[in-house]
Design goal:
Layout: H1 28-35, E1 63-69, H2 73-84, E2 89-92, E3 131-132, E4 135-136, E5 148-152, E6 157-161, H3 180-186, H4 192-207, H5 214-219, H6 224-235, E7 240-242, H7 249-257, H8 284-291, E8 294-297, E9 300-307, E10 313-320, E11 326-339, H9 342-355, E12 376-381, E13 398-402, H10 403-406, E14 408-413, E15 423-430, E16 438-441, E17 446-449, H11 457-474, E18 477-478, E19 493-494, E20 519-521, H12 536-554
Parallel strand pairs: 1-2, 1-11, 2-8, 6-19, 11-20
Antiparallel strand pairs: 3-4, 5-6, 7-13, 9-10, 10-11, 12-15, 12-18, 13-14, 14-15, 16-17
Helix pairs in contact: 2-8, 2-12, 4-12
Bound molecules: flavin-N7 protonated-adenine dinucleotide.
Length: 555
């Protein structure tokens, strides 16, 4: 296993789902043992251990020194570093704790068998791939505070993780450090040398990032799809690169050897990984829990933040049940508040609080600079002599880099259906130039986003700079059965919402919101719409940079 993550120009995740040919599940006893971190049967391949943050629903009227809204990457970095500095932290998280197995002995549902745990307050699944072989694959599920939110923002469907750990619960774990020149172009006010000397290494270490053993990659049946992707890319002259991940590669080897319960090799992704993946629960949040200074209120949603009479901020919080009903309304006073509700969550709160006068000092940059990280998906139909494999690891590990020549990096993604599909599947991250803005619709009483689906054409053109060429060289065609009938491009969604409270514009150069001392943004809302690669390492590294300065100067 290689522990020094190299820099790449891009990467990705995986979202394959199918109603057919499902892989078998794992036993509940084994699953529970693996989650405890001590699987006796798997010498050298223990599943990553997790230490739960104490769940302590905040009391009405409480006063806390620091309140963090949301428990994804930005929120977890803030909580850990504040706690290590001796400051007590309370995290408010609208999703569930995800620390208790269901009746099947597993905490998380399988991608191929979505159930009540899979979606945030929906009665029907909304899988990124809506069709397979012409058949719609979505199905009815009970309404529940499940793990994946497919939030309809008008012109775009925004996928987000819900629960203690935020997006780390559902994502592919692709952990990519962008090229220096790309980072410098995205955030020109940040000292690049400092980022690459200190904060990216700190983030990579904290997240447990590593790269697949290249020798194992060459022989593993579960990465045949990636090797086919490489062959096709290289025959068309495109650079092909490995992409680091937070998945425990030794654990995946043990999955392939059949000595531990399967996770990546059972198609788990999107609705949580029961083993193998190091989400924030196993990394930053486990370390935060160990300080004894951090508590979390799951199933609590922040609805308002406003200046308190005696100093600090009054935070209005709704406690909800698993059907999404409000069961209690609480008010908490906090000396300092960190907005870490994700790009969409933080932007929606700040835009509403500014428009309704709760935080009148916020500036005119609030809500601006939002982008989709140029996400677009497609599939290709291979020839019968190019099978991509029945069992595909759900963790992508490589991609095609055409960022310089065509503005796209394409992850070779799995389609873990359990059957041979002869398909190659890709998520491209592209240099889409469009930026949208959140605004308050007073009549409707909600925040809206003015993204337009037509803007994805720029991303499609950039992705085509790769796949038109490969199809021409291989004599293959695009698949048209994955995103509807007769539709090539998955251009209706993003997994990578970024922006809405951009660093150096809505905030100062370290995330302090203008006009209200003691309020901070520390999540993906700070990044103006694109990172050129998958975003969570950059979100983490920027949070590490900002919190260090904030603790030194403001506490
Ligand atoms: P995030 O992780 O979204 O955390 C925000 C948290 O705040 C969530 O837990 C919310 O439930 C909570 N929240 C929101 N509003 C409220 C409120 N009002 N009150 C209380 N709590 C609230 O934010 N990125 C990569 O780099 N590599 C990948 O492989 C990758 N794959 C992905 C796959 C999927 C399916 C998805 C959805 C995303 C993927 N991403 C990936 C994106 C990545 O997970 C995302 O950029 C980060 O999670 C964003 O981190 P933040 O800290 O900004």
């Amino acid at each position: 296993m290689h522990t020094t993550p190299p820099q790449f120009s891009g990467s990705s995740e995986s979202f394959g789902v199918s109603r057919r040919g499902f892989l078998t599940g794992t036993g509940s006893i084994l699953a529970a043992a693996a989650l405890s971190g001590h699987p006796a049967w798997a010498a050298g391949a223990a599943a990553p251990a997790r230490t739960a943050i104490p769940t302590a629903p905040v009391e009405n009227g409480a006063r806390v020194p620091t309140l963090v809204i949301g428990s994804g990457y930005g929120g977890s970095v803030a909580a850990l570093r504040l706690a290590q500095a001796g400051i007590d932290v309370h995290m408010i998280e609208m999703g569930m704790a995800w620390d208790t197995p269901g009746a099947d002995g597993k905490i998380f549902a399988n991608t191929t068998r979505p159930d009540y745990r899979s979606y945030w307050l929906r009665t029907r699944t909304k899988a990124p791939i809506s069709n397979f072989l012409g058949f719609p694959i979505d199905k009815d599920v009970p309404k529940y505070t499940g793990i994946l939110d497919a939030e309809d923002m008008g012109g775009i469907l925004v996928y987000q993780g819900r629960g203690v750990g935020g997006g780390s619960l559902v994502n592919g774990g692709m952990a990519v450090t962008p090229r220096r020149e790309n980072f410098a172009a995205v955030l020109p006010t940040v000292d690049v040398n400092e980022m690459y000397a200190t904060y990216y290494p700190r983030a990579n270490a904290g997240l447990g990032v590593a790269t697949i053993d290249p020798a194992w990659f060459e022989t593993a049946a579960c990465y045949q799809y990636a090797r086919v992707g490489r062959k096709h890319a290289q025959r068309s002259g495109f650079p092909f690169v490995f992409v680091p991940d937070v998945y425990d590669w030794e654990y995946m080897k043990a999955e392939a050897a059949g000595t531990v319960p399967k996770s990546a090799l059972d198609g788990e992704i999107l609705y949580g990984n029961n083993h193998g993946k190091k989400s924030l629960q196993q990394t930053y949040l486990a370390r935060a829990a160990a300080t004894g200074r951090v508590a979390v209120s799951p199933l609590h949603r922040v609805t308002s933040v406003s200046p308190a009479a005696g100093g600090g901020y009054t935070v209005a919080v709704e406690q909800i049940d698993t059907a999404g009903n409000t069961v209690a309304a609480k008010t908490v006073t906090a000396d300092k508040v960190f907005f870490a509700a994700g790009s969409v969550g933080t932007s929606k709160l700040l835009v509403r609080l500014k428009a309704t006068g709760a935080l009148p000092g916020l500036n005119a940059e609030i809500g601006k600079g939002w982008g989709d990280n140029g996400n677009v998906m497609c599939g290709r139909a291979n020839h019968m002599w190019d099978p991509t494999g029945k069992v595909q690891a759900s963790i992508p590990t490589a991609g095609i880099d055409n960022w310089d020549a065509g503005g796209a990096f394409a992850e070779v993604a799995p389609l873990p259906t359990g059957i041979e599909t002869y398909a190659s599947f890709y998520l491209s991250i592209t240099k889409n130039p469009h930026r949208a803005e959140f605004s308050w619709n007073a009549a409707a009483g909600k925040v809206e986003l003015n993204w337009q689906r037509a803007w994805k054409q720029a991303s499609i053109d950039m992705a085509r700079s790769i796949f038109d060429k490969i199809n021409a060289r291989e004599g293959t065609i695009y698949r048209t059965d994955l995103f509807g009938t007769d539709r090539v491009w998955g251009d209706h969604l993003t997994y990578h919402p970024l922006g809405g409270a951009v660093l150096g514009k809505a905030t100062d150069n370290h995330g302090r919101l203008h006009g209200h001392p003691g309020l901070y943004v520390i999540d993906g809302a700070l990044i103006p719409g694109n990172t050129s690669v998958n975003p969570f390492v950059t979100i983490t590294a920027l949070a590490e940079r900002n919190i260090e300065r904030i603790i030194a100067a403001d506490f």
